[in-house]
Design brief:
Blueprint lengths: L1 H31 L23 H15 L6 E4 L11 H4 L1 H9 L4 E8 L5 H21 L7 E3 L3 E2 L5 H4 L1 E7 L1
Length: about 180
């Protein structure tokens, strides 16, 4: 059984590496063709009001993502952690590369780093682990050249629904 888990982890690592390379290549091409050169001025951060129905979160999220994509703002980056671990995965630097590139080109933008955890177990321990994970991602961003004052750590949040991996994630979101 352990062999199968290690094979799955290795395959997942390869997949995330490929995804990271593709994202960086797409950002490079977008920059080359002038799609992310900051044309059109800056826009305020997208705000979404409270949902009115069960379908509203998905619709609002898609609308916000579409507006950010049109403005050249990278969408939220999700970094997944191992159970009970707060060390940033090796892929974290590649995962946040699009956001780092955007911040270097947009000096007024800031980012929010949010750690998530599930509702099972000790809530205080879960919050502490998700906070440490967010700090680890902040350290990766700072090591990549992002100024510390542009990185805001959000309060740890409970992940509702999804799977175990969703509960062990940190999200990095750009704010303009």
């Amino acid at each position: 059984m352990e062999n199968n888990d290690s094979e799955q982890k290795a395959a997942l690592g390869i997949v995330w590496t490929i995804v990271g390379v593709v994202v960086v290549a797409m950002l490079f091409l977008a920059g080359y063709f002038g799609l992310t050169s900051g044309k059109g001025g800056s826009k305020p951060a997208t705000t979404v009001s409270a949902p009115q129905s069960a379908d509203a979160p998905a619709v609002a999220s898609v609308a916000a993502s579409a507006e950010q994509a049109a403005a050249g703002v990278p969408g939220a980056v999700k970094i997944f952690f191992e159970t009970g671990k707060s060390e940033a995965p090796a892929s974290a630097g590649t995962d946040v590369a699009p956001i780092v590139m955007y911040l270097k080109a947009n000096s007024a933008a800031t980012i929010a780093v949010s750690g998530y955890h599930d509702a099972s177990g000790n809530a205080d321990v879960n919050a502490d682990v998700s906070k440490e994970r967010a700090k680890a991602v902040r350290a990766v961003l700072i090591a990549a050249g992002v100024e510390e004052n542009r990185v805001v750590l959000d309060k740890p949040q409970v992940s509702l629904g999804g799977n175990d991996a969703d509960a062990r994630r940190v999200e990095v979101t750009v704010h303009q």
